Task: structure prediction
Amino acid sequence: MTIQTRPAPDSDSADSRIDLEALLTLQDMEDAARRRMPRIAYDYVSSGAADELTLGWSESRWREIKLRPRLFTDVSTLDASVTLFGHRHSLPLLLAPASNQRLLHPEAELATARGAAMGETAMVLSNAANVDIHEVARVAPRPLWFQLYVQPDQGLTRDIVQYAEDAGAAVLCVTVDSPVEGVRNREKRAAMCLPPGTDHPNYLGRRTGPRSTMTLDAVRPQRLDAPLMAWLCSISRRPVVFKGILTPDDAERAIDLGAAGIIVSNHGGRALDTVPASVDALPAVAERVAGRVPVLVDGGIRRGTDVLKALALGATAALIGRPYLYGLALGGADGVAHVLKILRMEFLAAMALSGRASLAEIDRSVLW
Ligand SMILES: Cc1cc2nc3c(=O)[nH]c(=O)nc-3n(C[C@H](O)[C@H](O)[C@H](O)COP(=O)(O)O)c2cc1C
Result:
C-alpha cells in the first residue's frame, strides 16, 4: 500500500508556504495543519481509539480547572527550569514519543530533533521512529530519551535497549499501557499506510512481525507482566520511566519493579477508550508517589496554563504529542520550534500572571 498524498478537499494550495508567525496558538497550528495535511496523515495523528471519548476528555478536562492568582509577589525574574534525572531542562516540557513521523515530513524525526534543539526541549524518540536513533542523537538536544515497545523476542528487546544506550539515550521510557494497540476505528477507516521504503530502523532489522495481533479473528497481546518489567529495569543502564500509568496502585507497583519515573498517560486516547483524562488520574498518582520518583503527565496539553495546572496537581513536567506533530507537518523543524515557542511564552506568562516566579512556588494553591 502507498500513502495518498492528495490533500484534504478544503486544503490550501500545496505549494503556498505557511507563515508560522501568523499562527498564535496551538489550536491555530492544528487548524492550519488540518487544512494542509493529506487527510490520511491528519487522521493518523488526530484520531483516538473507538468512540474517542477519552480523546475528547483529555483536552476538555484541563479547561474546566480554574486558576487562583496571587498578587504582590516579585515575578520580575522567572525561572521555569527543572532537573530530571540529573539533567537541567529550561522548561518542564518534553516532546512525547510518536511513531512514523515520515508520514508528516520527509525529514521525519530528524526535523523534530532539530526543532526540539531550537526550542531547547528534550524529545522522546519512539521505538517506531523512521530514523535511526544514532542519527537522531547527532542533532537532538541533550538529554535524548528513547521510548521502548517490549518485543515478543526478549533478546531483541535487550539488544534494542543496548542500541539506544550506545547511541546516548539518557532515559529509557517503556510504554506499559499497550499490550495490544487500541481499537483505532478512525485510523483503520482512513486506511493508514506508510510511504514505500519507510523503515523502522530501531527494531534493528529483526522484527519478524507485529508485536501483538488484533484482528477480527485473533487478539494476541504482547506480554508486559511484572517479572518482565523487573527484568527490563535490571538490564537497563539508564533510568527507566514507565509510560501509561493511570492508577495509584500501578504507580506503586512501577516503583517496586524499579521504575525511576512515571508518566501518567492514556496514550493520547489511542489505547483503552473511556479511561479518564490524565488530568483526572494525576492527583491520586502524585499523592501516592509522594515525591519518591518524578511523575510526568501527557494528554491534551494545549496551553501554557495546562502546564501550570499539571505542575499544581503534582507533576514534575509535562509532555506534548499532537501539537508538535502538527508543527512538523506544517513547517518541519521550524514548525516544531514554533509550537515550543508558543508554549514557552504562554507558560512563562501563566507563571507571572499567577504570581509564581519559580516551579517551587507552584502547588495546589495555584488552583481555585
Ligand atoms: C501519531 C501518534 C503516534 C504516537 N506514537 C507513540 C509511540 O510510538 N509510543 C508511545 O509510547 N506513544 C505514542 N503516542 C502517544 C504519545 O506519546 C502521547 O502519549 C500522546 O500523544 C499525548 O497526548 P497529546 O497528543 O494529546 O499531547 C503517539 C501519539 C500520536 C498522536
Q: What stands out?
A: Residues 1-15 have pLDDT under 50 and may be disordered. The pocket of flavin mononucleotide is lined by residues 44-45, 58, 96-99, 126, 128, 147, 175, 243, 265, 267-268, 270, 298-301, 320-322, 325 (CB under 6 Å).
